[in-house]
Structure formats: C-alpha cells, structure tokens
C-alpha cells in the first residue's frame, strides 16, 4: 500500500463499466434518455476519482457534452474513465462512452466527457489528493490537454 501523498499512475484508477439498456432507460422511440447516460458517466468518472484519491469526491463540473449517436433498448453501453490531470484538491476525469449493438457486434462512439471532481475531508472541505504519475506518451498528452481545459474553466469562472 502506498502512502497517502505518493504519486499514483493513471492505470491504477482507470475504470471500465458496462451497462445494459433496459426498457426503463428508454423513451417511446426505444432509444435511451440522455440523462441515463449522464448518470452513468458521472458514476464511472467518480469511481476513477475515488480510486485515485481514496477520498469522498463530489462532481464540481462537467464540460460540454454531445450525444453523437442514438443508443437503443437491448444494446450494451461501455464506459471507460481515467484521471487526466490532478491539481491540489481537484481531478479532471475523462470518460468515453461506446455503445454496442449485440445483434451485429457493431460499436458506436456515443459520447465523451470531461468532469472535475474535488476530494473532501471528513469535514466536507476540499483536501489534497496524490499527484498523478504519467507513465506513457498518451498520459502526458492527456495531462497537457486537461491543463489547458482547466485554465479555460478558471477563466470562465472568474468572468462569472
Ligand atoms: C466543488 C466544491 C467542493 C468546491 O468548493 P470551493 O469552496 O469552491 O473550493 P475551492 O475554491 O477551495 O476549490 C477547491 C477546488 O475545486 C476546484 N473547483 C471549484 N469549482 C470548480 C468548478 N466549477 N469546476 C472545476 N473545478 C472547480 C478548484 O479549482 C479547486 O481545485 P484545486 O484545489 O485542485 O486547485 C463546492 O463548490 C461544492 O461542494 N459543490 C457542490 C458539489 C456537489 O454537490 N456536486 C454534486 C452535484 S450537485
């Protein structure tokens, strides 16, 4: 077991989550409600942030989200999440959502999202998280991109 502030690799907190689209998830056209996918995105991302920090986490923000292709009843939805960037108490997590038609095996990219989570201490106050160890070129690229998004978020927030 690592110490509380020891840097942790991206791979240590990655999440793969699979869901089946049930009738209760769909509208009258038989396609899934966007809110169901949003909730799965939030859960997959929160688990990665929790694994990285070993703390309770809250969703601070979700960057813009587009649904690229419809997802139908009976399909399988695969969500992959990973921590892209860590600052003092917050973590940016990226989620990729792919839907799979079980009858044909075809896979469709459905959505991608970036969420920021903040780790909280036992008093509900933001608390420091371990640094992120970047092992691969992809880790470095995603971290640099996430840092740019963080700067944009901070700019937007300061404009109110
Ligand atoms: C997220 C929350 C804890 C931040 O509290 P705060 O008083 O603004 O905290 P601070 O100003 O000390 O910022 C703490 C961290 O949060 C980050 N943060 C705050 N608001 C943010 C936002 N809108 N988007 C991204 N990051 C944000 C800050 O950048 C900072 O990160 P850092 O320590 O890594 O630099 C607080 O706004 C909150 O509790 N929000 C409600 C969360 C919630 O309930 N979510 C569930 C859905 S409602």
Helix coverage percent of residues?
25-40%
Instruction: Return Rg in Å.
Output: 17 Å
Overall mean pLDDT? 95
Query: What name goes with the CATH superfamily?
Result: Hotdog Thioesterase
Q: Which CATH class applies here?
A: Alpha Beta
Total beta-strand segments: 7
The number of distinct structural domains comes to 1
Strand order of the biggest β-sheet: 2-4-5-6-3
Large-scale geometry: globular
Topology order in helix (H) and strand (E) letters: EEHEEEEEH
Distance N to C terminus? 42 Å
Tell me what the structure shows:
By secondary structure, the protein is α+β, with helices and mostly antiparallel strands. The chain has a single domain (8-159), classed as Thiol Ester Dehydrase, Chain A. The protein is 27% helix and 33% strand. The protein has 2 helices and 7 strands; from the N terminus they run ββαβββββα. The chain has helices spanning 34-53, 137-159, and strands at 8-9, 15-20, 56-62, 76-86, 90-100, 107-120, 132-133. A hairpin with a 6-residue loop joins strand 5 and strand 6 (107-120). The longest helix has 23 residues, at 137-159. The radius of gyration is 17 Å and the shape is globular. The structure holds coenzyme A. Coenzyme A binds next to strand 3, strand 6 and helix 2.
């Amino acid at each position: 077991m690592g110490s509380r502030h020891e840097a942790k690799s991206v791979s240590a907190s990655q999440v793969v989550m699979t869901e089946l689209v049930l009738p209760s998830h769909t509208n009258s056209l038989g396609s899934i409600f966007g809110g169901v996918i949003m909730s799965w995105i939030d859960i997959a991302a929160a688990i990665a942030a929790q694994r990285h920090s070993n703390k309770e986490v809250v969703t601070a923000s979700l960057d813009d989200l587009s649904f690229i292709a419809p997802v139908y009843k009976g399909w399988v939805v695969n969500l992959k999440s990973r921590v892209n960037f860590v600052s003092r108490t917050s973590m940016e997590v990226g989620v990729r959502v792919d839907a799979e038609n079980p009858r044909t095996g075809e896979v469709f990219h459905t959505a991608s999202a970036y969420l920021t989570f903040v780790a909280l201490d036992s008093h509900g106050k933001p608390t420091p998280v371990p640094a992120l160890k970047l092992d691969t070129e992809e880790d470095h690229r995603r971290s640099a991109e996430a840092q740019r998004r963080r700067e944009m978020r901070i700019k937007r927030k300061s404009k109110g």
